[in-house]
Amino acid sequence: MKTHQRKRPVLDIIEFAERLAADILVLARSLRGYRSEADQLKRSSLSAASNLAEGFGRRGGDKAYHYNVAYSSAQEASTQLRVLALAGAVEMGRALDLLERLDKVQATAYRLEMRARR
């Protein structure tokens, strides 16, 4: 398999995480009365996308580290989103869609981290 073909799935998840972070930024703008929580949600979703991208460009232990941070940041965003949905600040259907997408980012970040540690 050619190198660029092996890299495409990683680039795909980075683009997926970027689109997800953009959607979360739009959502966060609408969260009146939840400024701190909206800020945390934005920062954690941006961190997940950013650390996937940084891990892609790194070598050695740094690669696994950044994928681990991406996983943890996506987990943090999921927690923030669930709490906001439970508080009624985010419509449950919208929250479930975003949570499903965050789960995909987490799962892929985990697999990338395990692969980088080999």
Primary descriptors:
about 0% strand, de novo design (two linked rop proteins), about 120 residues, 4 helices
Break the fold down into its secondary structure elements and pairings:
Layout: H1 3-29, H2 35-57, H3 61-86, H4 92-117
Shape: elongated
The biggest beta sheet reads:
none
**Count of runs of 4 or more consecutive helical residues:** 4
| Percentage of residues in helical conformation | over 70%
Structure commentary:
The chain has 118 residues and is an all-alpha fold. The protein has a single domain, classed as de novo design (two linked rop proteins) (Up-down Bundle), CATH 1.20.1440. 86% of the residues lie in helices and 0% in strands. It has four helices and no strands. Helix 2 runs antiparallel to helix 3. The longest helix is centred in the first third of the chain and has 27 residues.
A few lines on this structure:
With 118 residues, the chain is mainly alpha-helical.
